[in-house]
Amino acid sequence: MNTTRRQTLQQTAAVAALLATAGLLPRTALAFTKEAFDAKTVNEALKALGAGAPAESKDVQLTAPDIAENGAVVPMGVATTLPNVKQLLILVEKNPSPLVAKFDINPAVDANFLTRAKMGQSSDVYAVAITTDGKALFTKKEVKVTLGGCGG
Questions:
Q1: Could you tell me if residue 10 is inside a domain?
Q2: SS3 for 112?
Q3: How many domains, the chain?
């Protein structure tokens, strides 16, 4: 049986909902994630995830093109060598929902991720590392979009 990406995502969401209902996943973690993805600004998203005031850091790396020819598929990466990191985020400031990716980290996971995101227009892109004590460390880069990916 060939499973489509959409079916896999639906099945994963259903399993997560069942685990949460059974009390095996913390409900507050699911609520924080929904609030963060529904946030309309970068600061609202960070606040919803329980992060403190962001501070710039050279220990967080962001990989993104200077110019994205197609905003529908912009390659981005986030990495860090900082200790005690619990989450890595990628945020696009001018997107309708700035939080485009959230990666949970544990000691068994290498804190280095690549993804693709939609960008509707040229914007600052943020890579944020949230530590276990709630500190938010970030780096940012302006990415110019020639053809918008959010209906532009």
A1: no
A2: strand
A3: 1
What is each CA distance from 56 to 25, 61, 104, in whole angstroms?
32, 11, 20
Determine, yes or no, domain membership for 92: yes
Per-residue pLDDT in tens (0 to 9) along the chain, 152 residues: 566 777 777 777 776 665 555 555 444 444 457 888 889 999 999 998 888 889 999 999 999 999 998 899 999 999 999 999 999 999 999 999 999 999 999 888 889 999 999 998 999 999 999 999 989 999 999 999 987 655 54
CATH of the domain at 90: 2.60.40.2470
Which domain range does residue 119 map to?
39-145
d(CA 88, CA 141): 16
In a domain, 48, yes or no: yes
Alpha helices in 1-152 (DSSP H): 5-21, 27-38, 42-48
Could you list the beta-strand ranges (E) of 32-148: 54-56, 60-63, 67-68, 74-80, 85-92, 99-104, 112-117, 123-131, 136-145
- 13 in a domain, yes or no? no
The pTM (predicted TM-score) of the whole model is 0.76
Amino acid at 81: T
